[in-house]
UniProtKB/TrEMBL annotation:
<feature type="compositionally biased region" description="Basic and acidic residues">
    <location>
        <begin position="292"/>
        <end position="318"/>
    </location>
</feature>
<dbReference type="InterPro" id="IPR016095">
    <property type="entry name" value="Ribosomal_uL1_3-a/b-sand"/>
</dbReference>
<dbReference type="InterPro" id="IPR050257">
    <property type="entry name" value="eL8/uL1-like"/>
</dbReference>
<dbReference type="InterPro" id="IPR028364">
    <property type="entry name" value="Ribosomal_uL1/biogenesis"/>
</dbReference>
<dbReference type="GO" id="GO:0003723">
    <property type="term" value="F:RNA binding"/>
</dbReference>
<feature type="compositionally biased region" description="Basic residues">
    <location>
        <begin position="282"/>
        <end position="291"/>
    </location>
</feature>
<dbReference type="InterPro" id="IPR023674">
    <property type="entry name" value="Ribosomal_uL1-like"/>
</dbReference>
<feature type="region of interest" description="Disordered">
    <location>
        <begin position="262"/>
        <end position="320"/>
    </location>
</feature>
<protein>
    <recommendedName>
        <fullName>Ribosomal protein L1</fullName>
    </recommendedName>
</protein>
<dbReference type="Pfam" id="PF00687">
    <property type="entry name" value="Ribosomal_L1"/>
</dbReference>
Length: 352
């Protein structure tokens, strides 16, 4: 089933559609660059692939999923930084790590200890400078859970979360090379992910190859594979997102909805029929009653009517008495107030 779905998607997702999307984005970028002022330092722009899933992943991953690309995004003379664990149990020191990097020609420019990261990079400004100084960050696998609190939001905003490296093994160079030539997929707590797929300094053919490789690699690594993917969109940083693939709506849900509607319509019809039966039954009763000349009133009924009338009269009298009492008390209060005022005036005149 998954294989058949993959074949159908591959047929729908052709290279022509990807080429059209890439050409449209490049044209838009050229038009924008002509309208804007020229910058002193030209920055290499990237193409981003937006992945929409049908279901939220059960567990959010802090570590990214590596999706291999045929043409690496990061240049060979890139600035790379490595965080190492300098605790007593780790058994690695900064001197030993730097010696190994030099001897094996590993492209790491800076080695930072965990203790130094805790003390020297506490302020926000220091963290921001560190984030902007390097293209990519690597870290010892054992300290990855500690880094989100130490690095701050800036690394997560710019998608520069350190890639885990197993420093217990000797293949440091191979691990770093694989990470540099891969796209990083961060599966968070939502259904939408953004992946950096290619840079605009590459040729059009290379960009198209990278996009197709990223789509196929992501579809294989995502839970439930192609069955969980809703759509793929391609965009630049400030451009609109152009659709590359859109999954068809699930037909099973539609069938279930139709079935529920059918059953509900049946129930409504039954209710209407029952109401019609009740109304017709009441009409027949009325017709039968029409044959009588008059309704018979018994003595008990007359007495009951008289009792009810007397009770109503008694209540009316009680209400009338209560209203008269209230009026009398109000008049008494007004008279007392007038008397007090007159007494005060007399006292003032006598004093004068």
């Amino acid at each position: 089933m998954a294989k058949n779905m993959g074949v159908a998607v591959a047929a729908a997702l052709s290279e022509l559609n990807v080429e059209k999307a890439v050409n449209a984005l490049l044209k838009w970028r050229d038009s924008q660059s002509q309208a804007q002022k020229p910058q002193l330092l030209e920055q290499d722009e990237f193409l981003y692939l937006i992945v929409s899933l049908k279901k939220i992943p059960q567990k959010a991953r802090v570590n990214p999923i590596k999706v291999p690309l045929p043409h690496p995004i990061i240049d060979d003379p890139a600035e790379l930084c490595l965080f190492i664990d300098d605790r007593s149990k780790s058994g690695i020191t900064k001197d030993a790590a730097s010696k190994k990097i030099k001897s094996e020609n590993i492209p790491i420019n800076k080695v930072i200890k965990l203790s130094k990261l805790k003390t020297d990079y506490k302020p926000f400004e220091a963290k921001r400078k560190l984030c902007d100084s390097y293209d990519m960050f690597f870290a010892d696998k054992r300290i990855i859970p500690l880094l989100p609190r130490l690095l701050g939001k800036q690394f997560f905003k710019k998608k520069k979360i350190p890639v885990p490296v197993d420093l217990k093994h000797n293949n440091w160079k191979e691990q770093i090379h694989n990470a540099c030539s891969s796209a990083m997929l961060f599966l968070g707590s939502g259904t939408c992910c953004v992946v950096k797929v290619a840079k605009l300094s590459l040729e059009k053919k290379e960009i198209v190859e990278n996009v197709i490789a990223a789509i196929n690699g992501i579809a294989e690594r995502v839970p439930s594979k192609w069955g969980n993917i809703r759509s793929f969109h391609l965009k630049l940083l400030d451009s609109l997102a152009l659709p590359l693939f859109q999954a068809m709506p699930d037909l099973r849900l539609k069938i279930l909805a139709d079935a529920d509607h059918h059953t509900s319509s049946k129930e409504e019809k039954q209710e209407v029929e029952e109401e019609e039966d009740d109304t017709s039954h009441q009409k027949t009763k009325k017709k039968k009653n029409k044959g009588r000349i008059h309704d018979v009133q018994y003595m008990d009924d007359r007495e009951h009517i008289n009792d009810s009338n007397s009770e109503a009269d008694g209540k009316h009298e009680i209400n009338a008495n209560i209203s008269t009492k209230k009026k009398k008390t109000a008049l008494k209060k007004l008279c007392s107030i007038d008397i007090k005022v007159k007494d005060k005036k007399k006292k003032k005149s006598l004093a004068a």
